[in-house]
Amino acid sequence: MQLYRLGDSGPAVADVQATLDGLGLLPERPVEPVFDEATDRAVREFQQRRGLSVDGIVGPETYRALAAARWRLGDRILSLATRPFVGDDVATLQERLLELGFDAGRADGVFGPRTERALRGLQREYGLLSDGTCGPATLRALKQLGRHVTGGRPQVMREAEALHRSGAALPGKVVVLDPGHGGADRGATGNGLEEAAIVEDLAARLEGRLTAVGVRTLLTRGPDSCPTDADRAQFANDAGADLVLSLHVDRGSSPRCQGVASYHFGTGHGSSSTVGEKLASLVQREVVARTDLLDCRIHEKTWEILRLTRMPALRLELGHLIHRGDAARLADPAFRDTVAEAILVAVQRLYLPPDLDPPTGVMRLPTFADL
Ligand SMILES: [Zn+2]
After folding, report:
1. The pLDDT value given to residue 272
2. Which of 90, 264, 272, 337 could form a disulfide with 280 if both were Cys (CB 3.0 to 4.6 A apart)?
3. Can 161 be counted among the known catalytic residues?
């Protein structure tokens, strides 16, 4: 799709403004469909709140998030449909179901079979017609149940449980490696380097190491293709992967930007992936401990690769290409080997019981390959 930004105008801009206005993000209702300063500020505010990349540009991901944001729970009747309902109303329903102890999976805002099963469960438990449709009766029940019934965030416990059940051994696990961008989309560029090529190389190094310790490794793309992030997430879901590692390199907005950051799923208001957070934190710590990259810490995001995947997922932003030092490091194959090693160790540590987990920066693999 076309990107919309400061200075653009037309019906699509009017559409964007109508949504922003509905969310109370514009100081006043715009008279002309012009992407002005106020619209730019509102888009950035929206992106900030949503855990999207804050660039003031309405691209596919921000556009879809805006479309989803139009719906409040109760605006329409929700049920399982061939073209699934997508929107904030669905996400709210999923969060309520999760709070009440019904396994709706991740609050991804897509009404799928799992959401329907959870909804039927709720309906049965509360003596409603168990038809899997969120209509007036179910909405009334949800309202009466209030917001005070909050259990132990069951999906969080389920994720942790699944992690333990799957055991500490790496052989047999399925890891999806997702080198960002690809094909004609070269991603970030700077100091003569291209993100797409770096992350492909890193993925190859990691693939070799994971395969060597018995992990089944799948790549979301070859060198010539660039699937959407939603397609990449779907690929991981279809593969029934245990983990998704999405590899990126940042550009940086100024030559002073530098360092590495790790991202996991989280909305910033309660709905997050704890295993994803643990994975992000282990990768971040191992990479920082084994390299001299600046630690830009871990953060929650709702990017599609994190939100639409059903397993713990991580997105790594490894260094900034317009930073001289980061670029020099990334250009060095030995450095990329070290990073691959760090990620491999982090993956193994994720599955190790606490009593076997070694301190950061010291573990070598395959130490535990035959656990
Ligand atoms: Zn990228």
Report:
1. 65
2. 264
3. no
181: CA distance to ligand 1 center in Å?
Answer: 6
Q: 23: CA distance to ligand 1 center in Å? A: 29
Q: What is the pLDDT of residues 297-336, one digit of tens each?
A: 999 888 999 988 888 999 999 999 999 999 999 999 999 9
- Residue 327 Cα distances to 220, 246, 336, 357, angstroms: 25, 19, 12, 32
Residue 152 confidence class, pLDDT cut points 50, 70, 90: very low
10 C-alpha to ligand 1 centroid (Å):
29
Q: What is the pLDDT of residue 156?
A: 62
